[in-house]
Write a structure and sequence with these properties.
Layout lengths: L1 H9 L6 H4 L2 H29 L2 H10 L5 H6 L5 H31 L2 H12 L8 H6 L1 H8 L1
Helix pairs in contact: 3-6
Length: 148
């Protein structure tokens, strides 16, 4: 991420960055290899959809839960580079917004004792129940705090 920020700051001289930090190109290569594995899976999914009948496509769409963003994108295009770039952009954006959200929530909760207590009561009410995506989505007050 630092390399992306430096390249933006360098503006028209961003072509110099790989020479300033030799690990930049290696890191990009590793990241692309990682993303390419999942892009290939999405393209295989697309190929099975193209080969199957319309009834199978409808059944696949209904049975595919949860929704996989990359599979949805593969339904729109088969360009490997475009899919890789779009999924990496989505991951970068998600990382930044999640970190900002969590730090702001903790900052604001530290200044608002009643909200903190009510949120704690909701969490304690779960007892020994394992925290997973479903149980977190069922925590209504937590959802309201995060949305606020």
């Amino acid at each position: 991420m630092l390399g992306s920020g430096v390249q933006i700051a360098l503006g028209p001289f961003k072509f110099l960055y790989p020479y300033l930090d030799p690990k930049w190109l290696q890191s990009c290569r590793i990241t692309h290899q990682f993303a390419d594995k999942y892009v290939q899976k999405a393209l295989q999914y697309r190929q099975t959809l193209d080969n199957d009948s319309s009834q199978v496509k409808e059944a696949a769409a209904v049975s595919r839960k949860p929704y996989v963003l990359l599979f949805g994108m593969a339904e729109q295009t088969i360009d490997e580079r475009q899919l890789r770039n779009e999924v990496l952009q989505a991951l970068m954006a998600a990382q930044e917004t999640t970190a900002a959200l969590i730090s702001n929530v903790f900052f604001l909760l530290s200044r608002n004792e009643p909200v903190w207590q009510q949120l704690r009561e909701e969490a304690v009410a779960l007892g020994a129940e394992e925290l997973d995506q479903v149980s977190l989505q069922d925590m209504r007050y937590l959802r309201n705090v995060l949305n606020e």
